[in-house]
Write a sequence for this structure.
């Protein structure tokens, strides 16, 4: 029950966040560029540059959304387990 609720919540999150991300790419790209410039590792700087391309940005946002999905699922499963545990008679 908790996992299903988490999936529904994530879908609602996607409905709101995908248009926001699509309309406001520049703050995300600036953040990626800034974090890449602060890193002394040249490979990390190359990865940050690649994330600012169209293909890289899609991959970066996909990874971030999968991370958010995992957080939603973990919270949903834990809350579902706690609610189910509380309803059992002792």
């Amino acid at each position: 029950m908790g996992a299903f609720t988490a999936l529904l919540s994530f879908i609602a999150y996607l409905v709101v966040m995908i248009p926001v991300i699509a309309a406001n790419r520049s703050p995300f790209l600036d953040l990626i560029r800034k974090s890449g410039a602060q890193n002394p590792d040249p490979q990390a700087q190359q990865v940050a540059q690649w994330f600012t391309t169209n293909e890289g940005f899609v991959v970066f946002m996909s990874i971030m959304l999968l991370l958010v999905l995992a957080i939603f699922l973990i919270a949903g499963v834990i809350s579902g387990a706690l609610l189910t545990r509380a309803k059992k008679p002792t």
In short: Residues 54-87 form the longest helix (34 residues). The chain has one domain: 2-84. The chain is about 90% helix and 0% strand. Residues 2-84 form one domain.
